[in-house]
Ornithine cyclodeaminase (Thalassobacter stenotrophicus DSM 16310), 350 residues
Amino acid sequence: MKDTLQPSELAYVPFVSVANMMRLIHTIGPGQMMADMASVIEADFKRWPEFDKTPRIAAHSEEGVIELMPTSDGAQYGFKYVNGHPANMARGFQTVTAFGVLSRVDTGYPVMLTEMTLLTALRTAATSALVTRLLAPKGAHTMALIGNGAQCEFQAVAIRELCKINTLRLYDIDDKATNKAAKNLRAQGFDVTTHTSPEDAVTGAQIITTCTADKQFATILTDNMIGSGMHINAIGGDCPGKTELHPDILHRSDIFVEYPPQTRVEGEIQQLDPEHPVTELWHVFAGQKPGRTREDQITLFDSVGFATEDFSALRYVHAQLETHPFFDPLDMLADPDDTRDLWGMLMRAG
């Protein structure tokens, strides 16, 4: 981003449509883009104290949730609008849709508006892969994916990119979802087996990633399914009343979180005492606290998604537009000849 811009340069805002986001992803490559994004996310975790942080602003209903996720590092401001409606799939709609804005703090002017349905899938998987690389046991070679919906393939590709995991074991209560994921992942060169129960799917896996969508207290994994030394990415539990793991697993695990004030309300740890110890990821990335310290340690990433990760994704995409100008100019900012004469601008349009 330039240090100084003329007002005329700010009149039009780059808009990255779904079609242009797909062009960008195909140009860079999905795996490479998630790996690159993971580097930006890590860099932003390392400068965590610079960010304004607040739990996402959520409007809950029986059908789902609509959320705003804002943050700023003092130079740029970003937010994401995102919904989560598990019943949408049965009605032919996406469970999750999103868009985001990146702005300059010095002028308050937006510098990019973008779709974030695809981008959220990329940044969610990039974050999982980043944390898996940090916490997975040495020599891990197999991952179980429990929940084979829209996020499944992104998780697999990102974790292979960062952690070299190519062997996958899939399970979903919906056979169609598993068959879809197996077909897509085999086409990407993965060694895939499908299973009829979560117990079978986790057998022989060192990494388990859960990404189910139902808005309920669920027990996707039970204590007897988790052996010593495993790493778990618990992604699906991301709002109040929505979990995936039996509480006994939490008591056996060392738990790593993004932002405790949000995770204690929305994550797996909403099932625990509010004082239950957790480790904030930024401390680990900054070298202030350890990650995995023992071979028999069970590590759990209680992932709910945080605004800084969206901010990282937004600034990554914005930087890419300099060399990959896949955007449309959006006329969304009033630009009167005299900044005090907005009325005059309006009258000239008549």
